[in-house]
Amino acid sequence: MGQDPEELRADIERRRDDLGDTLDAIGDRVSPGRIMERRKNRMADSMRSLRDRVMGPVSSGTHRMDDAAGSVRQHLSADAVKEQTAGSPLGAGLVAFGIGFLVAAVIPPSEPEVEAAQRAQQHLEPAKDALLEAGRNVAQDVKEEAAERAEHVKAHASEAASDVGEQAKQQAAATKDRATSTPT
What we know:
By secondary structure, the chain is mainly alpha-helical. Helix content is 88%, strand content 0%. The protein has one domain (5-77, 117-181). Helix 4 packs antiparallel against helix 5 (89-106).
């Protein structure tokens, strides 16, 4: 048949907790401060990775660094890029994106960018709060509806049990009447 009321309550609580976690994760994802922090961390990781691939382990001598810088200049020269991406617009786009990404990682955010991020955060905070409140309201509505349905199921189960009991009594009486009226 269905679940008993205790299972329904446990399921509702689990879903409510999951919904709360999801809403918190959404709030964290849309926070401009967290977006900027993730972007900054990705760029720093990319730069470290690129530096390690290009220069290898850091050495104390400047000669090795000069060699690595020359190698990078050689590989990133306009002629080398043209040669490597000839006939491949997707490759050219990826190279351009990579160069833009490296430039963006090296240059710190400007004052207008920081101000824009702060303004965006101020405007998004109320939206985040509204989204969290809407999620809580939905969770409350779901809980109330589930409780109503559980009561409905409970009432039908009680009715069904009562009907089965009545039918069993009637069948028992009918069987007893047949047994007493049948000659032995």
